[in-house]
Design a protein that fits this description.
Blueprint (H helix, E strand, L loop, with lengths): L6 H4 L58 E12 L2 E12 L3 E5 L6 H7 L10 E9 L2 E2 L7 H7 E4 L10 H12 L4 H14 L3 H4 L12 H13 L5 E5 L7 H14 L4 E5 L3 H7 L2 E6 L2 E7 H6 L4 H7 L5
Parallel strand pairs: 3-8, 3-9, 6-7, 7-8
Antiparallel strand pairs: 1-2, 1-4, 4-5, 9-10
Helix pairs in contact: 4-5, 4-7, 5-7, 7-8
């Protein structure tokens, strides 16, 4: 994976103010300083050691060749009625990396994200053309099993949306639907998923309590645990921190870095510093078109397109 740790400091090369760097919102207290990680970043106060999560379906076994691309996008366009929202996108989403989608509001980032697991099917006027391919599966084909697709491509939304059920049943809901397993295996999976989402230590004594009683940051981590419990290959995140406070945002960003060791992640964000902190590659959208996509370090320090530079330096958007 690409090194992200010092990208924020390099923003000054394109005149981007980065005084709020990767851990401006660290969880330090007046009398204590959290230990730093390998890159010198302060760890979140409630970070816990996370176990390896199970290898998702579609991921290579140890020793197998790693496929270069998780999702292939070719000549992809979409419409809402007569309005064309996306124009002829060409993009490869790399396997096992974090790809950030940036751009001003209304540029098509979330529309594109929602097509990756067919969430736009719920909009009567929405239609799309072109190629969206996930490891050989044509995501737009009528024969594609949308329920199975949404298991393989999980989604975390802008606002936490836990089910009005217990913490335990939120995580167990998907496995009960998609998999046949013993009650003991299900309990192990619930714990494993909560640990992977850095939530287990905070909720292990109240698993039967309502998920609606959790804080906003905890609810979002619960939604991530719920998504990974079914063994997805890809995680889509639509501005997952926009409704959270700085402390919870730092926890989610730390979690994204951990999850990227196991999953391919695509994240939509309006926060330029966040894109620099968590992603390996960044794609800049403007008015429904993909302007530029490259390694995040290059996008934020040496963008090839003047429009990209103008956006990340705050000249518009």
């Amino acid at each position: 994976m690409a090194i992200r740790s010092d990208i924020t400091q390099q923003h000054s090369k394109v005149s981007l103010n980065t005084s709020h760097d990767a851990r401006d919102h660290s969880m330090t207290t007046p009398n204590s300083t959290p230990p730093a990680d390998a890159h010198g970043h302060a760890a979140p106060a409630f970070a816990v050691a996370r176990p390896e999560v199970a290898r998702p379906a579609g991921h290579p076994a140890p020793g197998e060749a790693i496929p270069p691309t998780a999702i292939t996008v070719r000549n992809f366009s979409s419409w809402y009625g007569s309005f064309q929202a996306l124009h002829n996108l060409e993009l490869d989403v790399p396997f096992g990396e974090v790809t950030a989608l940036i751009g001003p509001s209304g540029c098509g980032k979330s529309t594109f994200l929602r097509w990756m697991n067919r969430m736009n099917d719920t909009i009567v006027s929405a239609r799309a053309e072109g190629t969206l391919d996930l490891h050989g599966t044509d995501l737009l084909a009528k024969a594609t099993d949308v329920v199975e697709l949404r298991r393989r491509v999980g989604m975390v939304f802008q606002k936490p949306n836990p089910f009005p059920k217990s913490i335990h049943d939120n995580v167990a809901f998907g496995p009960r639907l998609h998999r046949s397993m013993s009650s003991g295996d299900l309990e192990d999976l619930v714990e494993q998923s909560l640990r992977a989402a850095a939530l287990w230590n905070e909720v292990k004594d109240r698993l039967k309590a309502s998920a609606l009683g959790l804080s906003g940051g905890q609810q979002q981590r619960l939604c991530i645990a719920r998504a990974i419990a079914v063994g997805p290959e890809v995680l889509l995140m639509d501005e997952p921190c926009s409704a959270l406070d700085p402390r919870s945002t730092a926890a989610i960003e730390d979690l994204i870095s951990q999850l990227a060791e196991t999953y391919t992640i695509v994240i939509v964000t309006h926060n330029m510093q966040q894109a620099a902190r968590v992603s390996d590659r960044t794609a800049f959208f403007f008015e429904g078109r993909l302007v530029e996509c490259d390694e995040t370090e290059r996008i934020f320090t040496r963008p090839a397109n003047k429009q990209t530079e103008d956006y990340i330096t705050g000249r518009f958007g």
